[in-house]
Amino acid sequence: xxxxxxxPLVGFIASVLLLLNALFWxxxxxxxxxxxxxxxxxxxxxxxxPVLLLIAESWISCNSGWMWLTQRVTWDVQGVEGLKYHSxxxxxxxxxxxxxxxxxxxxxxxxxxxxxxxxxxxxxxxxVMGVAWWALEFPFxxxxxxxxxxxxxxxxxxxxxxxxxxxxKYALIPTSVMNFLEGxxxxxxxxxxxxxxxxxxxxxxxxxxxxxLNAMGDKFQAILDxxxxxxxxxxKFGEFLAGKVKRITVRVRxxxxxxxxxxxDYANDPAIREAYQKWVHQMWLDKDAxxxxxxxxxxxxx
Length: 302
Description:
Layout: H1 7-38, H2 42-70, E1 74-78, E2 88-93, H3 99-108, E3 115-117, E4 119-120, H4 129-135, E5 140-141, H5 146-151, H6 158-170, E6 176-179, H7 188-194, H8 206-216, E7 220-229, H9 237-241, E8 247-255, H10 259-262, H11 270-301
Helix pairs in contact: 1-2, 1-4, 6-8
């Protein structure tokens, strides 16, 4: 454990280990994934995909290793017992920081199949990581504003098609589809701009989860609703690397897949769309109340 060192040194060591870990695993990922391009057969995919997932899980395990070495975090986690590695899951979570991704990976790695994130298209240009996400077939989305879609209605179906194609691939082997329903990280400014009805959350977007459930609802074992709370405030990524995060609280609950919604047509059926929005709204009300209770409990323990 190196967290006794001054925080700038801890941050430097953690950053170097994070980078070296990525530089080790990413070339291996890319080389093996190229075989699927060279031989685009279903049999090759069924052979190669488990190998890629094993590499990605080993990469995440090494990340957990440097986190253990450099961080001194008190973890308060409930709800990860009884998860099944060889099942399909839909995972949703509140989103406050890039640290959320490390938290989710650390807690769920090898408890459930590898998390596959829906990413903004621009992220494919992120050095090292962009090519890794490509190799692991993370779907890249356009994320157009409603104003843009009104002017260019032909673009409205692009993300749906991307989601459908991704889910067709994910149906072949156990996969966890990850979706941040808020679509972006929470900040007080965004919260005020949206006039969000929730105290600790931005407005959720039902479209992404609707598309995934419509494509794979019969495959998912359950929906995992994850709530992450940072009792001392949501950290920036650099603050986490420097060992400044002391407490992280996580709650995971399993929700049955609403088959009546999963089989509906969110894009073209107004009644289904309204039902989805009500369902997601209630989920977010419950999450908001849970966050408030966890923050109050953490304050009482101080």
